[in-house]
## 1
Amino acid sequence: MSPPWELLPHDPVGFFGLAEGFDRKDLKRSYNALLREFKPEKHPAEFQRIRAAYESIEQQLRYGRELIRRPRTSRYNWPSEAQSRPESTPPEAKPPSPVSADPSRPPPESTRPKGADAAASHRRSGEDNRRTATPAAPPQATERPLIERVLDESPQSLYAELRNKAAKSPYDFYALALLADVVQRDDPLLFLKWLLTGLKAHPHEPALINLLQAYLQHEIADQDCRRVLLAVAKAVPDESFFYLTERLWDQALRCLSFEDFDAVLRQCEVGLSDHRVQGRVVFYTHILRAAMWKAPREWVERTLTFLNQHGEWITHHLEYDLELTTRLWEYHQARASFLNGRAARQRIDQAIESFCTLESRAGERTLVECQAYLAGNPSEVLSAFSLHQPFPREALRAWSWVSEEVLGRLGLDDEPEDLQAAGKRLLQMLVEIDQDEPVSRWQTFVALKNLSYIVGSFLMVFWCPLLLGWLLGGSAPAVVLYAIIGLGSLIAFWLWWRKRTVVPLFDRIQERMVRKRYLSQWRDAIVLYFAATHLTFHQFLETSQAIIKHYSKQLNVSTWVPIMVSRDGALLVIALAQRFLQ
Amino acid sequence: MSESRPVVQYLQSQLRANPFREAEGILRRRARHLGAKPKPTDHRGQTPSTERREAAQELIRKVREQFWSLPLDDLRRQLAAVDLKEFPDLKAAADRLLYVATYRPMFPQLAQHKRFNSTFFSVFKRIVVLPPREAGALKDDVLRSLAAHRDVRACQRMVQVIKSEFPQLYQLDPHWLDAILKLKRRAGPLVLTSPSSGEGGFSIPGWAIVVVVVVVIRILAILARNSSP
């Protein structure tokens, strides 16, 4: 059955078929179900619509927006309201003009119509909005709707008439915004200014909010970011501010220096009445991911401290984001030690930074390109992540997180098609490893190990008594004592000293031998295995451990495979990269 | 003064719209009306077309099918004709095919070499143009079967030739080719056997225990003899 495309973009909840009280997991489940049908490589246009809907809900969940099953309708019936309401304006009214004044400031007192004070004081009340928005006089039969008047009246006269109108409805502000584009083309921001003025007069009007949010996501030139953010902060100074402007802040962070960005942010925050702090918590959790690459360390740490102090606002919708941001910060701090001049590491670093700082699709593209490079150059990856170097834990953790995130977004995080076949292939590989090992070498090793136990036992049994006898001389009771001491030494050797010294020594020797074989033979076979099966790294470890447990009596040195693989960062990187290949 | 017809039509279509439901459409029409260049945005802006992607995939599939018979210029022209920037996975595939195409003329030269092995040659030609997933499975299977094959040395000699005399072909898949060079022929079929070396446990030979006991007794006897007056 085809998804209800007609519900997009205004009813993404209905589109995903989400029940009341759904959470992020339910959303992800529905999203993944649709992606199985509309894979990005086969249906990119449909995928984008699904993705946009997903991100819209995901953002609302993060900001704790109240979501309802049906689209929230405006109080104002838009097109039919335009057709039926009267157009006449009270002659004594002198309405606010956004052209010369800052739209965030209400018009001067002397110019305000008498009804505007009531509107200002009851701004948050929906009923009063309705009273002030709709004119007192009933519609007259001769008045025509704006849609018709546009046919034979000039936009300039309509614009002037609406501007001079005392009490404007949300539709009036919308119409003014549209007419401003025609009447005053030299100021494209006038469109935005009328929207903001409309929101000041009719706060929380859903249609204007929706249009404003869409506008802020697409239409702002880099050089206008700063003043738009400041204007919106004055027009929408409540907890909606960060929800509406999040993407514009992303853009500002890209185009402004960090000092300018921080200055604008502080200026905007001054007037906000987000007393619940929730909007700021969500916003900072989001913006930190990109900001950490530009901001001074102190700013990042101060922000992390702020988030920790307001942990009660970290809803479960935000936990994943905060976790990812924390992982990225850990990597950021360890970055210098990770970069060792190898191309593979440089590219991984660039991909992580691009993922965090670029627009989402551009960031994904960079990451996918990097994965294609890594998958196509396994030799470079193997030498970039040598077993002789410390395991780059922070880097690989961050890389795993961002890669899994992109795999999820692209719908590529499905299970491999044939896990059973992958398991059989893995068993075959382990048996081959055992069969290819030079048996004599391992037999010699084991023989030497056993011989060391014998020599040790011999020394304990004889050496102590002989020494004592030579030092202290011997009588029959002394000899018996020496024998008891010898026996005691033997027991101590077996129960204690052997485990503390001999066994670890041979384990280290064995590990060195295994590592040598792993690097020269096994590693290549495992790389090819990942290319053939596309198992995840953890699936490989789990499957190999299960196989080894089941066949523990038949397998030999190959039992070391999961141990060596778990220490091998290169294989983690290669396993991830293979999953991006189609 | 009446405005031009396009402006009137624009205003009418916009005034008819509901910003709650049609915000994106309103803004798209507005941008068109203003003559603004669509901002390069992420997914909410220009969406990659399904048709473009399918066409690109089909092109790459055809190029793969006809890779060894298509004239080089045609091949390069076809791959260059499609803009694959928005499909990084397909771009990687096309780049790979272009790279292989650059050195395609070397394959006939390799076929003339005295150490030419036809089986390996045909497999190598397949692997370098297959999609990555298929190539991965085939490479693993080939390696397995080579290890049990009596001709493994012949294949390894050919790989050695590729590595030393045709380095550009070697670069097409150095990792897999090196894995072939490291292969040792397996004597028999793969079986799960018991560990022969006693690796998992400790065992002391019986004769060693006998020797230890005898020596203990002898030393105790010597000590006892020395201590008696």
Note: The first helix of chain A runs from residue 12 to 16.
## 2
Amino acid sequence: MTTHDHDHEPHATIVDDGGTSEFALLSRAMQELLAERGHLTAEQIRREIELFDEDFPYRGTRVIARAWHDPAFMDLLLTDGKTACESIPGIDIEAPELIAIANTPSVHNVVVCTLCSCYPRSLLGQPPTWYKSDEYRSRMVREPRSVLREFGTALDDDVEVRVHDSTANLRYLVVPQRPGGTDGWSEEQLSTLISRDALVGVTIPKGPND
Amino acid sequence: MPSDSVRDSVRASGDRGTGTTSRFAVGQPVRVRRTTPPGHRRTPRYVRGCSGIVERVCGPFRNPEEVAYGFSGEPRRWLYRVRFPMTDVWNDYLGGHRDVIDVEIFEHWLEPAPDQETAP
């Protein structure tokens, strides 16, 4: 953690160590036991991982593309994110509430979880390793603009950077601004401009003219 | 700045299973208690002792500090989003003067902010 003037005792941070921890081994042992006892098959696990990697990450993109395309849906998304997302067939939000936070010309939102790695998995899939890293989690609340610059996102001083530390049960989805030069685009066309990183807030979608 | 959604006012009223009404309202200045109790705590250290404004009343939730140890976490406690100016959290913050950080904090970690003079 970078220096600051608050007292604290040393504490264990949660790090992604690549699967060799006691908990990773325990998880693997549990998985093998469940498979051995016939409660779970390797195929089911594989399918679930596939869903996480191939389906979930596109759900967030579909939500944003629809919001850009349909002002009424955008309004609903910003008022009641969970209801809006779940109105799209196949999307199911586990969190008690999903808050969609809109970027504007004067406000740029970015999400972090300093305590662990809370993340809207049902909309974005598994969080990337950088999101779970000690470095991201400690630096984003301390020096957000430096971290954003490292992702290629530079913001003027008079833009308000609003960092969201999701320390409890709510999950956050950044709604980036729709890029210019996209008038008349379909939802499907719009979705090609949207990346997972933009929905966390570390990047800004580029339009055809950018 | 304060959210004016109907949802917030509905959540703020009634006890919703907590046995109490929410103590703080949207727009209210609050301070995070400066304390370092042992055990599982979900109020980040970097905002302890800091003052901010309630941005929304999130609603009642089971206390995660109890749930972590296998307890029910009931009765539920009110959860708030509190908005802190970055320049108040970090003495040497080098970013934009308008930058803020929003953090979810449980009611038992908050107290009314001491009266402060507003800068001109």
Note: The longest strand of chain A covers residues 97-102.
